[in-house]
Specification:
Layout (H helix, E strand, L loop, with lengths): L1 H14 L1 H9 L1 H5 L6 H8 L3 H9 L11
Helix pairs in contact: 1-2
Length: 68
């Protein structure tokens, strides 16, 4: 179930600009209550906003809602 939680969270980061902004401002709050292991949390918190923006920018506009 944890892999599914990571996939869902990454999907939210890419498609929901408001969520992405809140995640990078307060990752602990955004990750609270999610079914994630400590390693997954550490990996997600290590993501850089500009890297996610680059990834998101490569997606079709109909998929991504993140401000790049």
């Amino acid at each position: 179930m944890s892999q599914q939680a990571v996939q869902q969270l990454i999907g939210e980061l890419v498609t929901d600009g408001a969520f992405a902004k809140s995640f990078f401002e307060n990752p602990d709050g955004a990750l609270s209550g999610r079914d994630l292991t400590e390693d997954e949390i550490a990996g997600l918190k290590a993501m850089k906003e500009d890297e996610l923006g680059q990834f998101s920018g490569g997606l079709d506009e109909r998929i991504s809602k993140m401000d790049v």
